[in-house]
Amino acid sequence: MSSNSKNNLQWSFYLVLLLMFYSTCVYAREFNIPRLGAFQGKKVFQQHKNVEVDAESISISDDFQTFFYPQTLDHFNYQPQSYATFQQKFVISFKYWGGANASAPILAYLGEEAPLAYETPLYYKSFFNDLAIQFNALQVLIEHRFYGDSIPYGSSSEAAKNASLRGYFSSAQAIADYAEVLQHVKKNLSAETSPVIVVGGSYGGMLASWFRLKYPHIAFGALASSAPILYFDDIVPENKGYYSVVTKDFREESESCYETIRKSWSEIDKVGSEQNGLSILSQRFNSCSPLNNTSELKDFLDTIYTASAQYDDPIFNPVNLVCGGINGASYGNDTLSRIYAGVVALFGSQYCLPLPRCTEMVMPIGIDINDTMFPPHPFNLTSFTEVCMRRYGVPPRPHWVTTYFGGHDIMLILERFGSNIIFSNGLKDPYSCGGVLENISATLLAIYTEKGSHCLDLHKPDSKDPEWLVSQRKKEIRIIRGWFAKYYAQLQESKH
Amino acid sequence: MSSNSKNNLQWSFYLVLLLMFYSTCVYAREFNIPRLGAFQGKKVFQQHKNVEVDAESISISDDFQTFFYPQTLDHFNYQPQSYATFQQKFVISFKYWGGANASAPILAYLGEEAPLAYETPLYYKSFFNDLAIQFNALQVLIEHRFYGDSIPYGSSSEAAKNASLRGYFSSAQAIADYAEVLQHVKKNLSAETSPVIVVGGSYGGMLASWFRLKYPHIAFGALASSAPILYFDDIVPENKGYYSVVTKDFREESESCYETIRKSWSEIDKVGSEQNGLSILSQRFNSCSPLNNTSELKDFLDTIYTASAQYDDPIFNPVNLVCGGINGASYGNDTLSRIYAGVVALFGSQYCLPLPRCTEMVMPIGIDINDTMFPPHPFNLTSFTEVCMRRYGVPPRPHWVTTYFGGHDIMLILERFGSNIIFSNGLKDPYSCGGVLENISATLLAIYTEKGSHCLDLHKPDSKDPEWLVSQRKKEIRIIRGWFAKYYAQLQESKH
């Protein structure tokens, strides 16, 4: 496989992840319309499938042994049904581990909203693997409850139908799961004195930083990549939000590309309102089945732009690709032809969006003002709540994350509380607007790059990586080395 | 009311609390026998009752306004029933408050396993009140879920019958309740910049320290009095446990008293096994109805000794009283007459023990060795579990507290994590064996007294208090003042 096709493949995989993250965690615009079900991203899906039988992937997975832990369904209550257990999957690689006798470290990858699959680029042969080599660490990767093979009572469709069961799908339960699994692993390996560093990206990065804050007795430190822990309640001003960053990314790439996108929305509406307008749009954008309304197309394009900005990998560079297509105009000079060329430049096929989660991860992502290239679409908690009630019969809890995990006045609060967390970010990533971008204390550190994208530091290091990315990773290693140095000194002292 | 009778009354009240705490939280010996239901502590109960109509108490309560907050039944799950609410009681006194504009502090008393009643000596006109005067603080006192007026769906008997409802009775839910109430209070009073210090004693002290660790964004600091947060799992060695401290307290008071108690157990068994032995014991110990077995008497005496040690107030001094009775022998020179004289010296009536809680608060209190004055009775998790299953249909979770809140290696873990907690203890208190007795860091501080008892520092300061107690309270005030000084300096800075 050429390096370019691997990059392409990798990026495509992130798009899939993004679509999941976008929808399960943060999609906050109106979604009471069919979510682009007409589009089927066959090509990307097939590429994705191929990895499973890719010889290299299999050899990677060979380093890992798969285990299952009988996980408690409900950690926080004591009802008879709370005691039910489900099999939670985790995998371990002993390959680089220095062993329990040496108190060699444990690196724990905290799964996000995705199955723990062998092809997931954030896990295997990624920076996580390099960290294990650096520190002679055991690698433990744990699957998030309700994903992959870790679904209570069988299939996810079963779980989705059962409102009572679905109710155990929460971040507090998820990190309590990780606590139990890590204690179990440490105990079974007699590795009680091995310091644990938890690692995660995006939603998984939030879990990693929250895990360090809530379970400091289990995780000694955290590397939280692109974790928008401040993107809740009213912490991020609306005009510094997700869509403002996406717009900035495109405008910095190309002013004319930005302008074309900005005017495309009204053009789509105009054509769509004409006679046969929807079938014209269906044809021009090559949809698999006819569009029912213009929102289906606009939402799809919205996802293309936001995904490109979020995963603006410096090698594959999707924003550059999309704008190249738009500015190149190989399908015609008019606005819609340019927009279509942008989509084609990125990939020929598309994805449908799964349903959103309706409970605690309420990021108020909206477009309230005119400085973005998107049509206005303020976040509306009322309609968000209505959709949740209709779909799941429960309302969201928009303030629970800040109640349980905090976020407001984080500088004041954490300056004298907590330690050993790296908040890494790339400012091209629109979620960086909700990330921690300032050092809070001497050990709660913000390491960001101007040109980085979502979770970029966690990717597998590549010889073509720009200097700033290499340097970001080096900084992270240096910081973690410093934590370990203190830990082992103190451990030594406590033995005397 | 004379100061002496007040002290007597106060102490009696602690005994009631102890009996509750003892049974709901920590009673870990076999309890599949009737828990002294024959004894009715009428005298103590009546004294206790009298306080409710005591003029002074009413005037104290006049400073407080009562409120109810619609509390979330289940903070951690998203089942339809999780959203049910119950009315949680809290009371506020504005009397000493400097106000929101001055960012004047909020002192929050986190209720323990007891109703928030006006006569509770830990709350009103206690050291908590003095702290409010010291710091011009708002006083907020919050009742624990499932106690007093804060019982989901009405009465406690209703709640006890319903296994599903009873399952929401957990410490994680309780501190999440406090988080919501405190956020609600701060918001409603526009007191967002007022620092909150949480205060609690015994189980409430554990909640206070855990609250600071889990909710640092809501509580800026904690005063945790007599909080045995380390009395879980295997953290405290069995020969340094609760009963060893009780024994030490009695032995230090009087070697002969200790000897009499030590040999009394076999004497009780001997008499009990004789013909008419049980009725002889019933008569000699003046039980309200006939004893069914000697365990009923032995368990009662066990409670008398442990309560006396735990609440060994330096003014009332129950260990001294009991030993005075035992050594004085006004009812006869033999062992049993001496023991009875000890009980009479303390009070003429007795209490029955309510049922134990069977979930997370599993303190492995047992008597494994011969260096105590009690008969051997090792802690047995298996039989503890059996009783829980029989009584409530659910097993305990003996490792959950250390999983969720930590405890093992606390010095290593918290030295570089967390801040602003005072762990106060008195070493006469048998629970001090599970308390934090060493400074962990510059702001996680252990303030203990050699002669202090359970929660003694939180009591209302009295002109007869010994110097060491006065000095302990002064230290606590000085430390909290230091926290505030830093907070206000930083707040000021953040405004510029």
UniProtKB/TrEMBL annotation, chains A, B:
<dbReference type="InterPro" id="IPR008758">
    <property type="entry name" value="Peptidase_S28"/>
</dbReference>
<feature type="signal peptide">
    <location>
        <begin position="1"/>
        <end position="28"/>
    </location>
</feature>
<dbReference type="GO" id="GO:0006508">
    <property type="term" value="P:proteolysis"/>
</dbReference>
<dbReference type="Pfam" id="PF05577">
    <property type="entry name" value="Peptidase_S28"/>
</dbReference>
<dbReference type="GO" id="GO:0008239">
    <property type="term" value="F:dipeptidyl-peptidase activity"/>
</dbReference>
<dbReference type="InterPro" id="IPR042269">
    <property type="entry name" value="Ser_carbopepase_S28_SKS"/>
</dbReference>
<comment type="similarity">
    <text>Belongs to the peptidase S28 family.</text>
</comment>
<dbReference type="GO" id="GO:0070008">
    <property type="term" value="F:serine-type exopeptidase activity"/>
</dbReference>
<keyword id="KW-0378">Hydrolase</keyword>
<protein>
    <submittedName>
        <fullName>Peptidase S28</fullName>
    </submittedName>
</protein>
<keyword id="KW-0325">Glycoprotein</keyword>
<keyword id="KW-0732">Signal</keyword>
<dbReference type="InterPro" id="IPR029058">
    <property type="entry name" value="AB_hydrolase_fold"/>
</dbReference>
<keyword id="KW-0645">Protease</keyword>
